[in-house]
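Troubleshooting entry. Yesterday's outputs looked truncated, so today I'm pasting the complete records for two proteins to confirm everything comes through intact. If either block looks cut off, that's the bug. Protein one:
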Amino acid sequence: MKAAASAPGKVILTGEHFVVYGEPALVMAINRYVQVNVEERSDSAIYISTSLGASGLFEGNEFRPERGGTEARKILEPIRISAEATLKSLGERRGLNIDVASTIPVAVGLGSSGASAVSTVAAVGRLLGADLTRESIINLSTEAERYIHINPSGIDQSISTYGGVLSYKRGEGVSLLKIESVIPLVIGNTGVSRSTGRLVDNVRSRMERLPDVMRPLISVAGKLTTQAIDALRRGDMDELGMLMDINHGLLTTLGVSSEALDRLVYAAKRGGALGAKLTGAGGGGCIVALSRLDLKEAVAQLIYEAGGIPIIVEKVDRGVRSWTVR
């Protein structure tokens, strides 16, 4: 028997970085996915192959790369961690062959690692006949996210598991939002990868050095997300766009934007976007632009002309799903 699972990526509409300090974030699942296929081996090793060009075999603490050279282990380790965390939670010790395919660009703020971890947990659980709850999937995938992001907020695992649109607040978890409105989004990928953990640490250093200045900014960001949720519920895209613009300004103040990101934000606005901001950790990665329905192609074209890789996306209401392959 074999098993498979897939989970969507995400964009953060408002609230990234500020969520680390207890403020809410507004997150949407998008129609870009990671799919993981799993089958049992006859030994206790874990073999992993990915569409990123990395593959190799884990035997205990030993790793033998097949493709990807010295970087292969770094790429594959989070998948191994997710698989072994699931096996351990179910009291099992088995060898696995794991194949990972993704349509989510990596290390650019679209939740690739979270979707990979969630899909791996769900696929291994399905292979072993376990009926894992959504909360269990989130908890088991967190260990891999810690390996990548050091101090993950929990957003990526949550949105990949639940899908749709949700608000997330650290310590309180997720609130699922029933949003009927169409949310036309265009992503602009700078193609510049970055380290989420390093950027989070940089913001923390600024917080520690300038607490009296930073605390009011963090509070304002929390109020902004609350208002953005209300605007989204009312279907007021003009207001949501304005709030996204303000959020980008706050993130720039935190020091996490860049020339490349700002260039794509301004290009999207010239194309008629209602609002645009960086999404994710910043420092590189992507912007997300809220467009009018009839202007998505124009926004995408100007992002392209500004040096970005445009990706037109839509909301998906379904999160992780798993199935048996016979």
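Protein two, checking that the full record survives here as well:
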Amino acid sequence: MTIPIGIQLYSLKRETSKDFLGTLKALATMGYDGVEFAGYGGIAAPAMKTHLDSLGLKVAGSHADITVLTTQLGEQMDYNLTLGNRNMVCSWSDCKTEADFLRLAEKLTHVGEKLRDVGMTLSYHNHAHEFVDLGGRCGMDILQQHTDAALLSFEVDLYWVKHAGLDPLDYVKTLGPRALLLHCKDMNDEPDQKSTELGSGLIDFSPIVFYAQTSGTQWLIVEQETFVHYTPIESARIGLEHLRQISN
């Protein structure tokens, strides 16, 4: 199975802030299959849908933090259903304790139920703090154990898994089909451990992609936050080319 490749538009936040629709066109011209939103640039859903369709771009997902998902879920659902997006992603939580994560699991379950009722899915996007030991288990363990797989999947950020000291491939395997989306973000080999272009850092994406092709992962999503040698647009092209190469 060939998994479609998208890009998290947060990687191109400077570009989208200047020309949102022009950035989408550039990504489509490169050959991206789709995009993942982290905000909509003030563009109404019908206009966004028309533009995406004209470019042949699908929607891989859309990010919103837990506050937005619990207070503005209706608006998020309406916008994304218009786009044809079925993947909502909880992008962030500031949980620190076991009790925090247990409360978050309850909130995600409630949101997941509402999304399921309209044919959408909910995934949780990790950073590194979800892997801190809280007395025998970590936040990600709690979210897995205290939610129904039918209501919550995961968008695994491979960079942050590596940053937390875990092996990205091994961790993706522990999630199996719940690893619905993969954030493909590489880590440099410098002490600062910043993100870098795919294929130039410490993460070997080949076995991860190979596993994902049989595990139910729906999208490979390029993400990068630090740019040293290339512009964000150039880095987006490098990321796409790397994933295309190892996917074939």
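Both blocks look complete. Sanity check on protein two: The mean pLDDT is 97.
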